[in-house]
Please model this.
Amino acid sequence: MSEVPEGLHYTEEHEYVRAADGDDEFYVGITDYAQSELGDVVFVELPSAGDSFDKMEVFGTIEAVKAVSELFCPVPGEVLEVNDSLDGDPALVNSDPYGEGWMIRLKVSDPSDVQGLLTAEAYRAHLDEG
Amino acid sequence: MSHDQETGTPRKTPLYDEHVRLGAKLVPFGGFAMPVQYPTGIRAEHEAVRTAAGLFDVSHMGEFRVQGPGALELVSGITTNDPARLSIGQAQYSAMCIEDGGIQDDLVVYRLGEDRFRLVVNAANIAADWAHVVEHAGDVDAELTDESEEIALLALQGPAALEILQPLASEALDPIGFYHYVEGRVDDVPAVISRTGYTGEDGFELYVAASDAGRVWRRLLEAGESTGLIPAGLGARDTLRLEMGYALYGNDIDRKTTPLEAGLGWLVKLDKDPFVGREALRRQKEEGIRRRLRGFRLTERGFPRAGYPVRYAGSEAGPVRSGTVSPTLGYGIGTAYLPADAAPGDELAVVIRDEEVPGTVESMPFYRDGSLRR
Model:
């Protein structure tokens, strides 16, 4: 079964949002379920620090052997940092999706937007319906 | 994978339960539920085949038996290569064409006896090939049997394949040449042991009775475990074959392409007795082809996928027929139909999400360090 840690927030498109420093900074990545469905990640195309994205705007793409998938920004915000380690080691997305496989660190415009995303329980239910 | 539309409930190969037990991800392919990968993942499976060995279930492939005094004439009449050149114990890659020279299927022809052949065809084409063969058999004195349901096919591929298989085989394997086979036993069940494959590595394809497939599969995995043998799925099969530039039916070749255009002219023996498609192919050869299937590599980062547009010499060519990022080489590779005068080294671009990613025409195979002995 796919891992869905408590305390994170999720989207139906299989991104997660995990708290970083401060009230308004979050790591964004894809869930264990998503990495497992995609299979081996070959590379990840990420935006640049300073780029801003609206809710559900495409902020990058993830290329796996089997398929390409777009990455959607779960909440509006500005990119503070991208995970450069993925350039050399994209397999981190497969091996540690919630940890070292994060994709962007996002300064969200309104932290309450994060509360509007799916809880771990709701995301699990979404996977079960799948 | 194939971009064919899959419809209906997929059939199961005799090894379906093994795949489920191993935790494979199953996808519909050619009308069958097939393992695209096991929990190890496509890259690990690819790597295992290049460095040790992988075991593939390719039982979805179809097998037709042609037997009788007219068997050679029948097979020759529906294939572009010349089966008369086959001795017993030998196999031949070939193509079946329709009248206009388009490729009905690519196949392997085995000569099992003076008057007995086996045709091994693609899963998605079994029904259409059968109809094609029956239609063109005419009144030739030969009996046709579809053995697809009774025969399972396991492919053991990789530099360690011989070492793994030999202790289980009744016959000496080393003397078997590439595209040759012996009839013997594997783990004490009858098998056609064929030195063929689709990966660019040394290896064997084992034709066994469907009812024996499970035990041979399990026995091989046990026997090869310490050598690094793992089960490998269609995902790795696809990246392996593309690194070698081997054509995949439905992607690189189909009824709208001819063997001459596909770089398979070596399969076309125009001087043998008549065969379906010969006149069209002769004409095309005389007039010259306008396009040809070519390999390309990307020179910047990008993942070329089937269907992406290709730009060559200022105009639209292609699209990409097959594409991947080569696990062994680390860059994007693929195939596309380009103008016939396109040559290795020429520049092109693949359009990936509205951006042109540059590349060059490359000769195939892309990967040249395989263990395959020809």
Notes: Chain B is about 20% helix and 35% strand. The radius of gyration of chain B is 20 Å.
